[in-house]
Design goal:
single chain, alpha+beta, 4-stranded antiparallel sheet, 3 helices, about 25% helix
Length: about 325
């Protein structure tokens, strides 16, 4: 028959989370509470845990009080500067004393700015006592229970968050496929299908998810002669999981109105591929053909057949050119 045929390249891929974050404490202190459950879906900004904030609140209060004290000293220094400036004009005080008053005001203004920086730093440290989710995703196993003392230097962290929607799959293809992949990307984001890894599966394996190719690596691995690619999948049904192996099928071309037969119809001989064509008199004729693209579902015949002709798909080993056949019903 004549129909459109999608040309796919197939490779082995590894599922990877589109983002992975290890949540770690930024300050030291007792862990008061943990607000998430293992395996829970969280959104960016959700509160995950709280560290005892009292010492950091006290540091902030002390910084605010220090700024108020310095602001009061600055206000008095500005009044003194204004008085000395007037007295210097009428020579009731020396110019040096007026300059000293201006210098003191400048020092105190800088001190107030330093106090504000200390307040900002203390407020930031206090905010670190509330640990929030930095990304949308799913949390894994809890590494620390409430009541423990946590430190900013801890390596393990509190929990790992992985983004599963969307998700990515990294896979490789032989470098011979590079021109086809590059041409497909130039025409738009190519479609990518992910299929389960099953050695016993037939040619019509179920599709786990459909996505698009997002990255073609900028070099060929000289050690393996392969190119690395990455595809993105929406993964709405969570059929893809980080770390799993999947079969990836990348569509690089669509053949329009191609003449196709079942792959089992094509026989190989010393003179090349051929098929047995059955005519209206139920006689088999051996006919050489040229095969273009071929996969598990169809063989594209570029020369030798016309749409509508009948070809033998079973029992060809017992046929000879011109032999009469009987067509068995399925």
């Amino acid at each position: 028959e004549a129909r459109d045929v999608a040309v796919y390249l197939e490779g082995l891929g590894t599922v990877q989370a589109s983002a992975t974050v290890t949540v770690k404490p930024m300050v030291d202190g007792p862990l008061l509470e943990v607000r998430f459950k293992e395996g829970q879906d969280v959104h960016a900004g959700d509160v995950l845990a709280r560290i005892d904030p009292r010492i950091y609140q006290a540091a902030l209060d002390g910084a605010v009080a220090k700024k108020k004290q310095d602001e009061a000293t600055l206000a008095n220094a500005r009044l003194d500067m204004a008085r000395y400036a007037k007295l210097a004009v009428t020579a009731y005080t020396s110019a040096q004393q007026a300059d000293t008053a201006r210098s003191l005001v400048a020092q105190l203004e800088a001190q107030v700015q330093s106090d504000q920086a200390q307040i900002d730093n203390a407020r930031t440290q206090l905010s670190y006592t509330t640990i929030t989710a930095p990304i949308d995703g799913r949390v894994g196993f809890r590494q620390v229970d409430s009541g423990n003392i946590v430190h900013a230097a801890d390596l393990a962290g509190l929990v790992v968050i992985t983004t599963l929607r969307p998700i990515t799959v990294q896979f490789t293809l032989p470098q011979q496929d590079l021109p086809a992949v590059a041409a497909a990307m130039a025409a738009g984001p190519p479609e990518v299908l992910s299929l389960p890894q099953d050695a016993n599966a037939g040619p019509r394996r179920p599709v786990l998810d459909a996505g698009t190719l997002t990255v073609l690596d900028n070099l060929v691995d000289p050690a393996t002669g392969t190119i690395r690619l990455r595809a993105s999948f929406p993964n709405e049904r969570l059929t893809l999981w980080p770390g799993a192996f999947v079969t990836v099928r990348l569509r690089v071309q669509t053949l329009i109105d191609a003449i196709v037969v079942a792959p089992v119809a094509v026989q190989r001989g010393p003179q090349g591929p051929y098929v047995y064509v059955v005519n209206a008199e139920l006689k088999a004729a051996r006919r050489p053909v040229k095969v273009g693209h071929e996969d598990q579902l169809a063989s594209v015949i570029t020369d030798g057949l016309q749409p509508g002709e009948r070809v033998v798909i079973d029992g060809a080993s017992r046929l000879t050119d011109g032999a009469r056949v009987a067509i068995a019903q399925p």
